[in-house]
Amino acid sequence: MMNEKSLKVLEFHKVIAMLSEMASSPLGRELCLALKPSTDFSHIVQTQKETSAACDRIRSKGAPSFSGLRDNQAALKRLDIGASLSIS
Question: Is 15 left (phi over 0), alpha (psi -120 to 50) or beta?
Fold first, then answer.
């Protein structure tokens, strides 16, 4: 993780705020706000490959539609709790 002074100089918080405003769902917004810079070279390379693949997809087929997305975290949590109760 980069030090706080570097993040402030780069105005990282402003970049993250602008990114989160573009999210099309509350969960996407949360994920944007939770982003932190990485110093792990292999992680950086992997995420750059994923970003390139996403950009290629958008260029060739247009942006995917995320309309109708619903937050299912509560349901997944209930399933997880139910599964752990049945194991006991």
Answer: alpha
Structure tokens at 42: 């292999």
The larger pLDDT score, comparing residue 74 to residue 56, is at 56
Q: Where are the alpha helices (DSSP H) in 10-40?
A: 12-21, 26-33
The pTM of this model reads: 0.64
Q: Which pair of structure tokens corresponds to residue 62?
A: 């247009």
pLDDT tens-digit map of 49-67: 999 999 999 999 998 887 7
Contact present, 21 and 67 (Cβ < 8 Å) = no
